[in-house]
Amino acid sequence: MTDLAGRVVAIGDPDDARIAAYRHVRERDLAGREGLFVAEGVVVLEKLLRSVRFRPQSVLVAAKRVQALAPLLAQVPAEAAIYAADQAVMDAVTGFHIHRGVLAIGRRGAPLDPAALLRALPARAAVAVLVGLSNHDNVGGVFRNAAAFGAGAVLLDAACCDPLYRKAIRVSVGAALTVPFARLAPGADVLGLLAANGFETAALAPSGAVALAGWRAPPRVALLLGAEGPGLSPELLARTPTVRIPMAQGFDSLNVAVASGVVLHHLANGP
């Protein structure tokens, strides 16, 4: 505990102004956090502490976990406060039971420019392009798969939900903090942007023209993924090659996060 000497501040009152940023986590996630986000759990905190784009502003842990987490907490930058509270205090300030006992407030880095992000990727790279994904679980799942299978980046259109929403980060197991991502401006021509930066595209669709096993992806490829239900627009599908994942007769759909994992695995292990 010597590395934490004098750093851990005990909090005994859920109304303590020093932990105001953690108050009513669920409601404030929906309303926005003015450049901040919430990271939940040990694994996500580990990813936040390793991130070059995002920095922790403070950490709040259950008092009973401080000793076990001392090696991790010692990595928290000196400018970030470390607070410890009894479980009842944590639950009261957040508005629900934080069974993981670990929360952090992170500060967003500057938004990445989509074109600059694409240009910086290597000669062989895969990019996941999310179109209209409003479900935080799905967005988090795609980020997790992108990290697992070495995708270079994720692009999100203007209609996608925030990948730094607390639940999206948690479902991604912190991958939303490590996989580079950029958001497209409303009305942006994503296919034109990708082509201008040397990427060929493929759209994943149940009625895709080419079965996944027979698809030979180009070295720099962008995979377009649409929301479950509406999928990708006919206009997008008409402008790019389409790929399908063959399934058992009478069934033609997968959860979009699962589908992304299947295709990204194929890209990572293909010729």
Describe the structure.
By secondary structure, this protein is α/β, with parallel strands linked by helices. It folds into two domains: 2-107, 2-Layer Sandwich (60s Ribosomal Protein L30, Chain: A); 114-269, SPOUT methyltransferase, trefoil knot domain (Alpha/beta knot, 3-Layer(aba) Sandwich), CATH 3.40.1280. Helix content is 30%, strand content 22%. It has ten helices and twelve strands. It has helices at 25-31, 42-50, 70-73, 87-94, 114-120, 136-148, 166-171, 190-196, 234-238, 256-269, and strands spanning 8-11, 36-40, 55-62, 81-85, 102-107, 125-131, 153-156, 181-183, 200-204, 210-211, 220-226, 242-244. Helix 6 (136-148) packs parallel to helix 10. The protein is elongated and about 60 Å long.
Count of structural domains: 2
For the biggest sheet, the summary is: 7 strands, parallel
CATH architecture of the largest domain: 3-Layer(aba) Sandwich
CATH topology of the largest domain: Alpha/beta knot
Q: Would you list the SSEs in sequence order as H and E?
A: EHEHEHEHEHEHEHEHEEEHEH
> Any low-confidence stretches, pLDDT <50, length ≥5?
none
Number of strands: 12
Overall geometry: elongated
**Main structural class:** alpha/beta
The order of strands across the largest sheet is 8-7-6-11-9-12-10
Radius of gyration: 21 Å
Work out the helix count: 10
At the first level of CATH, the class of the largest domain is Alpha Beta
Task: Quote the average pLDDT.
Answer: 92
Brief summary:
By secondary structure, the chain is α/β, with parallel strands linked by helices.
